[in-house]
Write a structure and sequence with these properties.
With 393 residues, this protein is of the alpha/beta class. The protein contains 13 helices and 15 strands. The strands form three sheets. Strands 3, 4, 5, 6, 7, 14 and 15 form a seven-stranded mixed beta sheet that branches.
Amino acid sequence: MKALTWQGKRSVSVEEVPDPVIQEPTDAIVRITSTAICGSDLHLYEVLGPYMHKGDVIGHEPMGIVEEVGSGVTNLRKGDRVVIPFNISCGSCYMCKMGLQSQCEVTQVKEKGSGAALFGYSELYGSVPGGQAEYLRVPHADYGPVKVGNELPDDRYLFLSDILPTAWQAVEYADVPAGGTLAVFGLGPVGQFASRIGVHRGFRVIGIDPVSERREMAARHGVETLDLSKTIGDELREMTGGRGPDAVVDAVGMEAHGSPVAGFAHQALGLLPDKLAQKAMETGGVDRLAALHASVDAVRRGGTLSLSGVYGGTASPMPLLTMFDKQLQVRMGQCNVRNWTDAILPLVEDDADPLGVMDLVTHRSGLDGAPALYEKFQKKEDGCIKVVLNPGA
């Protein structure tokens, strides 16, 4: 089959790889009809390269049609249409029953000290082949896949694989009081959805992003928007009676604008042998923290900071004096996808499309166009906000 593979820093290519096969009774094989490029994929494209291997199949936002199931899968059959959550969870361990599927005790990558295995996301998360491919082997298919109807287009459902539940969890964790104000740093795909979920829940939402096309998209959904500036904290306080927003979602993560020192560290990591680079990441502070520090500054005293952007350093400096003094609540973590999908599914099927799932995709292609779109997405060129790949195209 054809699949998008990692070949090196800022280098991906479409290659012929072996078709996946059933390996365990709880496996399924899914023919991929749509699969998206996620902002998290850009970390593999550059920062997390030391944990990647040439030829790794990437991608973790897929959906498609079940082609085959193992003997232990009784909830699915050939021909079912399913969305595949990006984290692989068993559904029956202590963590899964607690609604913490991203910490599944059965699929945890213990040798790396990581949580649940993820599709297409480096040896840190199990080196499981990903979904930017024609076919995908799905472990724990007796629990993970979300079965959906056949009437609506893929775009209605595709984002249940990652970014929509991730945004939902970010807003849940933000703990915004009724009628309160939520600021969202970063209006990429997760930030777009977090903003719209906030509006849907009746909050005042202010989105911050340096890219005009992203601000314009958010504004279409009732979001107030600001350009990113050095005085963004003061601007947000001025808009909120001098206090700052009740909660802030950081939907940017470790590749934020305005972090030149960490940006240099990212480049330096790429020059080190993989084992040395891994050690540097596991013991050093290599995150670009501009968005995180701006969020800490902007949120009101006693407010909540919700992190959905991915961070990769283990010794990244945090302004703990300020955080303690402001009495902030901080919540974060990989999304527990299956904990939220049942609540979100009726909204994506609603004719009114209250979360705007049909107004997110800006670029489409078959697999062959993926390498060029990775570059365009990373550089934020041509108004590129969300890319969907159709492997059968």
